[in-house]
Write a structure and sequence with these properties.
Elements: H1 13-29, H2 47-60, E1 64-67, E2 83-88, E3 94-102, E4 110-119, E5 127-129, E6 138-140, E7 142-151, E8 154-162, E9 169-176, E10 179-186, H3 193-205, E11 207-210
Antiparallel strand pairs: 1-11, 2-3, 3-4, 4-10, 5-6, 7-8, 8-9, 9-10
C-alpha cells in the first residue's frame, strides 16, 4: 500500500521539477537548533543502544542520532537481530537499517523497515542511480518534498519519493552541525502513509544526539 507521492513511477519531467523544488525547500528548512536539540532530562538514548551509537560517533568523528523510540519490534540497537545494514562509507556517511518481516502460511504479512542516515560535513542532497534509466543517470536520492515538520528541536523536510535503500519510504531530512541527517520508514502493510507519517513524527521528537567522545 502506497501513500500519496510514494509510488515510484520513474524520473519524468514532473519529478524533475519536484527535485528542483526539493532542493529549494530543503535549503529554506534551515538547520536544527544547536544545544537545545532534545535537551529534556527525560530523554536518553536507550541503555542497550547507547554503546553502538557511541562507537559509530567515535568512528566517524561526528554526532549521530540515536532513536529513543522506533516501531516495535525494531529496537534501534546496532548489531541486533533486526539491524540488517550497518554501513559506514569512506566519506564517513553511514546507513543504519532495521527491518522486520512476517511471511509464511497463516501469517498476516507485513514489513516494518526504518533507516537512519548521516552525512557528516555535507549538507547537499546526495545523488543516486536512477533505477529506470538505461544510462544509469544520477538523480537526487530524495525528492518530491511535502513541506516541513518540527520536533525535538529539529526542523525536517519531508521527502515522498526516494531512492536506493529509502525507495518506497517517506523520509525526513534535516541539517545539524554542518551535516545532513535522515530518518525514513517504508510505506507497507501494516502501515499506510498516514501511520508512517505519525511514526516518523514520533521518531523525530525522540532522536537523541550522541557526540563523539573526546580523545
Amino acid at each position: 500500500m502506497q501513500g500519496p507521492g510514494c509510488r515510484f513511477t520513474g524520473y519524468n519531467g514532473a519529478v524533475k521539477r519536484l527535485a528542483v523544488l526539493a532542493l529549494a525547500a530543503f535549503a529554506l528548512a534551515g538547520c536544527g537548533a544547536s544545544g537545545s536539540v532534545n535537551a529534556s532530562a527525560k530523554l536518553r538514548c536507550p541503555a542497550k543502544a547507547l554503546a553502538g551509537w557511541q562507537r559509530l560517533a567515535n568512528r566517524i568523528h561526528a554526532p549521530v542520532f540515536c532513536p529513543a523510540w522506533i516501531p516495535d519490534p525494531l529496537d534501534g540497537v546496532i548489531g541486533s537481530q533486526w539491524n540488517n545494514i550497518n554501513e559506514v562509507s569512506r566519506d564517513r556517511s553511514y546507513l543504519e537499517s532495521w527491518v522486520w518481516q512476517e511471511t509464511g502460511p497463516g501469517a498476516a504479512g507485513g514489513e516494518k523497515h526504518v533507516n537512519l542516515r548521516g552525512y557528516p560535513g555535507r549538507t547537499r542532497i546526495p545523488k543516486c542511480v536512477d533505477a529506470d534509466s538505461k544510462t544509469r543517470a544520477l538523480i537526487p536520492c530524495f525528492s518530491s518534498p511535502g513541506g516541513t515538520v518540527r520536533g525535538g528541536g529539529l526542523t525536517a523536510t519531508v521527502f515522498n519519493v526516494n531512492q536506493d535503500a529509502d525507495q518506497w519510504h517517506i523520509l525526513y531530512a534535516w541539517h545539524y552541525g554542518g551535516g545532513l541527517y535522515t530518518v525514513s520508514e517504508h510505506v507497507a502493510p501494516p502501515f499506510g502513509y498516514a501511520k508512517v507519517r505519525l511514526n516518523l513524527d514520533h521518531m523525530l521528537r525522540n532522536l537523541i544526539i550522541v557526540r563523539p567522545a573526546k580523545q
